[in-house]
Design a protein that fits this description.
The protein is an alpha+beta fold and 372 residues long. The protein contains eleven helices and 18 strands. The protein folds into two domains: 179 residues, D-amino Acid Aminotransferase, Chain A, domain 1 (2-Layer Sandwich), CATH 3.30.470.10; 158 residues, D-amino Acid Aminotransferase, Chain A, domain 2 (Alpha-Beta Barrel), CATH 3.20.10.10.
């Protein structure tokens, strides 16, 4: 393990209230290509348990698990305030099992895309992140500028120029109780995930989810309590679709499993459900801003956010899912109803291109350059 420069990025970094204040550590990662070349068999777990395993044995087994190909994403770097630094060794990218984010779900998270060496909408996502932490009654381990600086340094250490940065705030480790009173310090974690390929705006099918939607108090907060979201996604896939669509307590269109929903009406109006009962999507809000160009040139008649009935949604000319992982994804079928012509619509495709262009060359208000 080697030390790297502790020179803080703008805003300054004090990596951990428990760890050294002037050291960020890195490990050399085992590459996926090396694991593949070595011909290692897929990881199948171990039925026997060694109660006297040495630290070196445990490290070897963790490295074996990582190199097996059991993980299908490339983790380039992780920051943890528990040890107060950054590691590039996937085997060291762990959190304590007694952290309440693990066994009680008492944590929040957010994300930011990395495109061409720039962080996209980091400020906007950070604002939502801190709002979520306040709603979840999680005190900050650092101030906003320090958290921002840590996140940028983590991307810098990763050398990743295209992918995503995901980060979490937890009430921290301490015990297995329900209350967080025994947690001495909140914890910040961040990880950089490499994604060399871009999403493709191919049409998809969705279904009306049978999984109960979260109450507005928890839907507007981006917490780690995503079991309803995961089950909605799985239910959609089990029924031959991409995901499920939630309806709110009044039967209006709410959102997808982890993305917002948009429509283009027959009157060429871009329509989205209001954000008062669902997560306020940063990508969706940016799409609404970029769509103003289409109003100006006549391709859209207007932009509206209001209640949308299922009947109105299914009768739309276009339907789309909007989120940071998919950008803009056309929906061509909802349940048994074909949407519009049954093919990807021109507005969805245009909005996809606009958001992608914004990620690559948008203003400084949405793009932060990373110094590698």
């Amino acid at each position: 393990m080697a030390a790297i420069s502790a020179s803080p990025a703008p805003g300054g970094v004090s990596p951990s209230p428990r760890g050294p204040s002037s050291l960020i550590t890195r490990n050399k990662a085992v590459t996926w290509s090396a694991a593949t070349a070595a011909g290692l068999a897929p990881w199948k777990g171990r039925a026997s348990v060694s109660t006297a395993a040495t630290s070196s044995n445990q490290t070897e087994r963790l490295n074996e698990f990582h190199a097996s190909g059991a993980r299908n994403q490339n983790y380039m770097a992780m920051y943890s305030s528990i040890f107060g630094g950054i590691t590039t060794d996937p085997s060291a990218m762990v959190i304590p099992i007694d952290d309440h984010i693990v066994h009680r779900g008492h944590g929040v998270f957010d994300t930011a895309a990395i495109m061409d060496g720039h962080l996209y909408e980091l400020e906007q996502h950070l604002d939502r992140f801190l709002k979520s932490s306040s709603m979840a009654k999680i005190s900050l381990p650092f101030d906003r500028s320090t958290i921002r600086s840590i996140l940028i340094q983590t991307v810098s250490a990763s050398k990743c120029t295209q992918g995503s940065l995901r980060y979490w705030l937890s009430v921290g480790p301490g015990d297995f109780q329900l209350s967080s009173a025994g947690c001495a310090n909140s914890a910040l974690y961040a990880i950089v995930i490499e994604s060399p390929s871009l999403p493709v705006p191919a049409g998809c099918k969705v279904i009306t989810s049978s999984i109960p939607i979260k109450s507005p108090q928890f839907a507007v907060m981006k917490s780690v309590n995503y079991l309803p979201n995961a089950l909605t996604k799985v239910e959609g896939e089990e029924n031959g679709g991409f995901t499920g669509i939630w309806l709110d307590d009044e039967g209006f269109v709410a959102e997808g499993s982890n993305m917002n929903v948009g429509f283009v009406t027959r009157g060429r109006e871009l329509l989205m459900p209001r954000f008062d009962k669902i997560l306020s999507g940063c990508t969706a809000k940016r799409v609404l801003t970029l769509a103003e160009q289409l109003v100006a040139d006549g391709r859209l008649s207007g932009i509206t956010s209001r209640n949308v009935s299922v009947q109105e949604g299914k009768a739309a000319d276009e339907m789309m899912l909007i989120g940071s992982g998919i950008l803009v994804k056309p929906v061509v079928q909802w349940d048994d109803q074909i949407i519009g012509s049954g093919k990807e619509g021109p507005i969805a495709q245009t909005l996809f291109n606009l958001i992608l262009e914004d990620m690559r060359s948008g203003p400084s208000s949405v793009r932060i350059a990373v110094s590698y």
